[in-house]
Design a protein that fits this description.
Number of strands: 7
Strand order of the largest sheet: 1-2-7-3-4-5-6
Distance between the termini: 18 Å
Number of helices: 0
Radius of gyration: 12 Å
Structural class: mainly beta
Low-confidence stretches: none
Shape: globular
Order of helices and strands: EEEEEEE
């Protein structure tokens, strides 16, 4: 597991800005509704999973009020399992 801090309200109300989260790094299967941490350029991002492709190697993710985007499972650090909100 690894700890992170939510830098925005992108997945609020579940995880508000400033909340600390714990991401389980050994997860390899994700489902719609999961909140994941992934690498995007030089930063870590929290987003909500809205879909998984048939091969299971790409996730469709979304943050509040932003369009959906695709993320490679290789870029996912882990699934959020605990929040201090």
């Amino acid at each position: 597991a690894e700890a992170f801090v939510a830098a925005t309200n992108g997945v609020s109300p579940e995880i508000p800005k400033g909340a600390r989260v714990l991401a389980y790094k050994l997860d390899s299967a994700y489902s719609p509704g999961d909140i994941v941490v992934f690498r995007e350029s030089e930063r870590f991002v929290l987003s909500r999973v809205t879909g998984v492709n048939d091969a299971g190697d790409r996730l469709t993710v979304r943050k509040n009020d932003q369009p959906e985007s695709l993320v490679s499972v290789d870029d996912v650090v882990g699934r959020v399992v605990l929040s201090t909100r």
